[in-house]
Structures are given as structure tokens and as C-alpha cells.
Amino acid sequence: MPAAVSTEGRPPALKRLEALDVFRGMTIAGMMIVNTPGDWNHAYAPLLHAEWNGWTPTDTIFPFFLFIVGVSMAFSFAARGARREGKKALFLHTLRRAATIFFIGLGLNVLSFFLFHRKVVRIPGVLQRIGVCFLAAALLYLLFGPRGLLPAAAILLAAYWALMTFVPVPGYGAGRLDVSGNLAAHIDRAVLGEHTWKHNPNWDPEGLLSTLPAIATMLLGVAAGELLRARRSWAWRLAALMASGALALSLGLLWNVSFPINKNLWTSSYSLFMAGLGAVVLALCLWVIDVRGWRGWARPFVWLGTNAIALFVLSTLATLLALAMKLTGDDGKRRSLYGAIYRTVFHHFADERLSSLLFALAFLAIWVAVGAFLYRRRIFLKV
Q: Which of 287, 308, 297 is nearest to 64 (CA)?
């Protein structure tokens, strides 16, 4: 993707944005830490999702990744356009990639179904949402161009707010935003049945209706990418990205008063707030890495960020297998390989949250090493 950094007034030369790789790698690192504690019952509060309304650092991870995919899309499509690839070729590329991501995610759910003898297969998921958002955002981008990005995002956010606020749910009425009575959960129950993450009642944080504002999150990322591609000075672009992020963040906080920030529902306020925060973080990464040249600390994140989805899939697969494999301990109890490693190596601190975090950090270190191996051999696994 373009953009070597220049602090002068002319546009920078073509080069990969290392800061974007770092931001992506930081996001994947966060995903691994929160997804693989040694003990899910013992974790520090910032490493847990907000129970319902509100947000924690953990709630930034998924929207940041969608935002980053959007930024990357702007550069990727521009590069393909420069190679004179037409809209049909871009559409087919988008369709293939979106389908691949979706079915990898669904495949992991099917594997989980067999390994843990679950009652039903969960259909939605993180990768499934990424695939759907990628396809929808790319189609809107191809159809309406850069000028259509913000209007499309605004329409999606406003439509979702209107649906969640004014459409009545049978037995509950309109405007309910609790676990059982909200419209998104009602649609998940009606369409997906028990093929969801949560049961009693059935609903899914990556469900059907809440995908609309998630698409808007990605579109705002594409808009940020277009801003960074503008033929203006690098200082102007960074300032504009920071200002735009601060504006979106502020609008999200204002909307929070009437439509609460909520990751499980992916409310419009949450979408705006997280896209704005993502823009601010990206601007800071660009300034630190591509302007100031402070790169040494960021190498592990580059290793993770250049193979992000592949490492996420492989680490998820390793986690599932480690949880499914059973061992008999010296006390005669059957435990998963995952649990046995945790109890034998890490479970030695009075504060079990520390033990749990150290396990997650050790798990992350393994995948940083894998990422370094791939990076140094110039192996980049694309989907």
C-alpha cells in the first residue's frame, strides 16, 4: 500500500505504511491476550468485555480491526486501480476474499462443534463478520467511490438507530436495549434460532442486524485511508486524521446519551466512537513510526501485523486443540492440555489474575516468534 512518509509539502513516494502494520499487529496481540487467559474466571477487568453498556480496552479490539481493514482497502484498491484492474476484477477479488474469510470462520465453529460435542453449530463469528463487512464495504466503495463513503456510513448508522429505537419487538415493545428485548436479538432468534453464541435468550454479538453499523465502522476506515492518500502534505494528512478521529469520537460520546455505547449490540454510538478512537491511534502510530522513525519497539507488532489473519486463525486452532486434548494428572483428574500447562507452569501466584495473564503473554510470545519466522523468510499468508 502507498505512503512513504515525508514531512515536506509534496506527497510521499509509494511504500508500505509500516505504522498500519504495527497498529494491526497491536490489535492481533490484544486479541490473543484477551482470548487466551490461563483461567477465564480470573482476569483483570481491562481484559474483559463490558458486561453490557459502556466499554473497556478489550472492546476496542474488534472495531479497531474492522477500521484497519477499511484503511487497507483504500490503499489496496488504489494499487489495483493503478495496475488497471477494472471494477469487475476488483469485485471478483473482493468476493473470493470475503467468502474465504467467512468460511474459515465457519469452519472453526464446525470444528468446535465436533471437538466439544456442542448441541448446535454457531453460524456467526468474528471472521464471518469481517468477511461480510469486507464484502459490503467494498461493494459500496466500488459503486459510489470515495465521496459516497461518509454518506453511506451515516445512512447505515442512522438506519440502525431508527430500527433499534422505533421498531417494536413482539412481547417487549419498541426501543428496548436490554439483552432480551432488543430488535437485534429478536432477529437473531427468528433467523438463526439456536445457532448463536448465547442462549436463553438466543442472541449473538456478531449477529445479523448489528452487522449494519459494523459495516459503517469499516467504511469510516476506508474514508481514513482515502484521507491518507490525499495529495497534501503529510503534516496536513496526520492533522486531518487526528481531527476527524476526535470529531467522530466526540459524536459517539454525544450519541451515547440516548443510544448507549454497547459492543454486544454494536450501537451506532459505539461504531462512531471506536472508529474515531481508531483514527486517533493510527495518527499517533504514523507520527511515532513513519514521521519520527521510532521503530525498534514495534518490530514484534510488524511481525504479527503482516500475517494478522493467518496468525489469528492458527492461534485459534491451536487453542481449540489444546482445550480438546485431555490429560490425566498426578491427582488422577482429567484436564485439558491447555489447563494442565496453566496449572503446572503458571498457577503459582497468590493473585490468580497474574497467573492467568502470564499464561496469555506466553501464548502471545509463541505467536510473535512464529510471526518473526514468517516475516524474516518473506512468507506472507494471504486469504
A: 308
CA distance 245 to 139: 24
Q: How many domains does the chain have?
A: 1
Residues 6+ apart with CB under 8 A from 237: 227, 228, 230
Grid coordinates of 91: 469485485
Split at pLDDT 50, 70, 90, the class of 8 is very low
Nearest residue to 137 via CA among 184, 83, 79, 90? 90
**Radius of gyration, CA atoms only, the chain:** 21
Residue 356 belongs to some domain of the structure: yes
Q: What is the pLDDT of residues 285-305, one digit of tens each?
A: 999 998 888 999 999 999 999
Contact 47, 327 (CB under 8 A): no
- With 0-12 / 13-18 / 19 or more C-beta atoms within 10 angstroms meaning exposed / middle / buried, residue 317 is middle
Pairing between β-strand 334-336 and β-strand 326-328 as defined by DSSP bridges: antiparallel
Q: Is 96 left (phi over 0), alpha (psi -120 to 50) or beta?
A: alpha
- The whole-chain average pLDDT of the chain stands at 92
In a domain? residue 10: no
What is the tens place of the pLDDT at every residue in 218-253? 999 999 999 999 888 888 999 999 999 999 999 999
Q: If we measure between CA atoms, which residue out of 42, 41, 199, 188 comes closest to residue 118?
A: 199
Q: Is the pLDDT of residue 1 over 90?
A: no
Q: What angle do CA 99, 380, 12 make, to 5 degrees?
A: 100
Residue 198 domain-assigned?
A: yes
- How sure is the predictor about 2, in pLDDT bands with cuts at 50, 70 and 90? very low
Residue 363 sits in which domain range?
18-376
φ, ψ for residue 331 (rounded to 5)? -85, 5
Assess if residue 9 is contained within a domain.
Answer: no
Q: What is the mean pLDDT of residues 161-187?
A: 95
What is the mean pLDDT of the segment spanning 246-275? 97
**What's the CA gap between 150 and 25, in Å, rounded?**
27
Q: Please report where in the chains the cell 503534516 appears, as a residue.
A: 235
Nearest CA to 14 out of 79, 60, 108 is that of: 79
* 184 neighbors 208 (Cβ within 8 angstroms): yes
In degrees rounded to 5, what are phi and psi of residue 259? -135, 90
Query: What is the pTM assigned to this prediction?
Result: 0.92
